[in-house]
Amino acid sequence: MNNNRALFIASFMTLIAAGVGFAVRGAILGDWAAQFGFTQSELGTITGGGLVGFGVVILVSSLFIDRLGYKPVLVLAFLLHALSAVITLAATPVFASQGKDATYWCLYVGMFMFAVGNGLCEGVINPLVATLYPNKKTHYLNILHAGWPGGLIVGGLLAYAFAGPGAQVKHLRWEIPMMFFVIPTVLYGLIILKEKFPMSDVKAAGVSFKTMLLEFASPVLLLLLILHAMVGYVELGTDSWITNIMENVIPGNAILLFVYTSGLMFILRFFAGPIVEKINPIGLLFVCSILGAVGLTLLGSATTGMAVLAAATIYGIGKTFLWPTMLGVVGERFPRGGALTMGAIGGAGALSAGLLGGPMIGYEQDYYASTKLNQLSPTTYEKYAAEDKKSFLFLPEINGLDGGKVGQVKEKKADVFTLEDKQVVEATLYGGRMALKWTALVPAIMAIGYLILLLYFKARGGYKAEVIQEHLNELDHPEEMETPL
Question: pTM of this prediction?
Answer without folding.
Answer: 0.79
